[in-house]
Design goal:
Length: about 80
């Protein structure tokens, strides 16, 4: 099976060589941080969606807003 052009380009970069050769812990670290970031994002969006659907009325909007501080320019 032949490599796609974009994959060949990625594999030819210095960053790819650095991650694959010199730092064996870097790729797992990046994957872990990516997973944690997605979990936080989907968790806060999920809470907001449940509140909009009326299933989590007990959660005040201020509590959800505190979880996603960076998302609003009007934060104090």
């Amino acid at each position: 099976m032949e490599m796609a052009a974009w994959e060949a380009f990625i594999r030819s970069t210095a960053l790819h060589v650095f991650v694959r050769t010199y730092e064996p812990w870097l790729w797992p670290l990046c994957e872990t941080l990516h997973y944690l970031g997605l979990s936080l994002l989907l968790g806060t969006v999920g809470l907001f969606d449940l509140r909009v659907l009326g299933l989590a009325k007990g959660i005040p909007p201020e509590a959800i807003h505190r979880l996603i501080r960076g998302g609003s320019a009007a934060t104090s």
